[in-house]
Amino acid sequence: KDVLTATTSIYRCLVVTQAPFPEMLLIMRRTSHVHGELKTKMCVLTALFFGFRVSRSMAAVKANRDLAESLKEGTSFVFKDWEMKSGIYKTELIQKAINDMWFANRMDEGILYAKYFDPLPVKMIALVLVVVS
Length: 133
Description:
The chain has helices at 2-18, 25-50, 58-72, 92-102, 109-112, 122-132; strands at 79-81, 86-88.
């Protein structure tokens, strides 16, 4: 069981650091779990980070839709200051996502298998940004 757990963790590290956008169907089926986990975490982080409202009222839904559209316009969400569009790829959201997904505690994959995350692969940052969009 320990070998299988370690193997699965290493595979997950390799997926996000080396091949976050797989081309083969078989590999895609096996990577969907880690992608799904990242997407779930990013929904919460993105909502908190950008201030999406938690309400089903028409006004809140419209405000959320407008905010989402403005963030997607010109990929504003990748900027540190998304309103002024300055500090490209310096948004704290990227770091928060990476910390939450791979470095939240001492048993997380980023800590256990640090060699796969040092330096942090550009492909992995791209994966985080794709999930946000």
